[in-house]
Amino acid sequence: MWEKKVNIYNVFELRCKTTCYFGVGAIEKFKDITEWFADEGIRKVIVISDPVAYKVTGAWDKVEKFLKEKGIEYVVYDKVTPNPTTTQIDEATKLGLEFGAQAVIGIGGGSPIDTAKSVAILLEYTDKTGAELYEGKFIPKKAKPIIAINTTHGTGTEVDRFAVASILEKEYKPAIAYDCIYPTFAIDDPQLMVTLPAKQTLYTTIDALNHITEASTTIARSPYSILLAKETVRLIATYLPQALSNPNDLNARYYLLYASAIAGISFDNGLLHFTHALEHPLSAVKPELPHGLGLAMLLPAVIKEIYPATAEILAEVYEPIVPGLKGVPGEAEIIARKVEEWLFAMGITQKLSDEGFTENDVPKLTHLAMTTPSLGLLLSMAPIKAEQEVVERIYRNSLRRMQ
């Protein structure tokens, strides 16, 4: 396998619109970023994280050290939760404005980095709120510089233009996508992932798997999004079991992190459709539900629906997990069951009914999927028409394990 011929300690630059420092030891590149701050006249920054990630990963030790060495002042907002809210975004923005922050540093997984992206916008649009941003009440054209220090291998948010937040009072979980929130710099260092609990290792990796499942099959798909999808599945199938059995395996973390990054680039190009559009209502209604778990519970039913329209693509993309498919529509049931079996084998055995959802929730979830701001755009990208009965059927077929 050629992967053994790559020096995982060679920190290279993964170039997309974001300059991403990638590899074991990449966190040391934050020193270069502070030099860029100084060159740009940035003397004050706000750091956004959750209560744990920035400290337990060791990222903060380096970040604080290099900020102090350059004399860059900072303030920390560390109240971000999984499935972050517009209330948290507003709180962090207020803190940043009072401090006079000129840039935003997000340390963590998708939740802190998405929050950082949102705050970067609102620091420029001081008369706006997080809810107004996520309900599409205005279209931002600018944001403060964003630095994304990633601590999970799933979201890809460190290299893309997307962010997500929940408006709790409306049970909305919209997404935004603006060019102004591509991070200027990102750090992807596998060393920061070794403390990830097994469940988070699973859930974040399945997020990446869903990114490419959708990006390779939207109506906006391209050879690029499909190529990245194929490599993402190959890497996940190879290295997820290794990371689960040995959390300290830097080689496995490296390739799961690389899979996550290229999956982020894949859906930045190919966009998303059913699985994300239908998961957002799940974790909007139950904010404690991990995003990746919600996606995993929906994935088999989504594949079953879209496979007849995208059989040639998914048969090739999923070859490492479901070998031997011919790429014909009649295999939809086979691949759906096999993917579900693989998820169970990896350790994700829950379905929607295990998380408290019932048949009675399907109409509400369907309504939210079809009315939450931005989710209609995702549904419009699906390879089959996203009619109400299709959405309902996916939810129903995700309540319990396939028979």
UniProtKB/TrEMBL annotation:
GO molecular function: alcohol dehydrogenase (NAD+) activity; metal ion binding
Alphabetical list of InterPro entries matching this protein: ADH_Fe/GldA, ADH_Fe_C, ADH_Fe_CS, AdhA-like, Alcohol_dehydrogenase_Fe
Pfam families registered for this protein in UniProt: ADH_Fe_C, Fe-ADH
Keyword field: NAD, Oxidoreductase
Domain named Fe-containing alcohol dehydrogenase-like C-terminal: residues: 201-398
Start and end residues of each Alcohol dehydrogenase iron-type/glycerol dehydrogenase GldA domain: 19-190
Gene3D superfamilies in alphabetical order: 3.40.50.1970, Dehydroquinate synthase-like - alpha domain (1.20.1090.10)
Coiled coil: none
Family the entry assigns: Belongs to the iron-containing alcohol dehydrogenase family.
Protein name, entry field: Alcohol dehydrogenase
Organism: Fervidobacterium thailandense
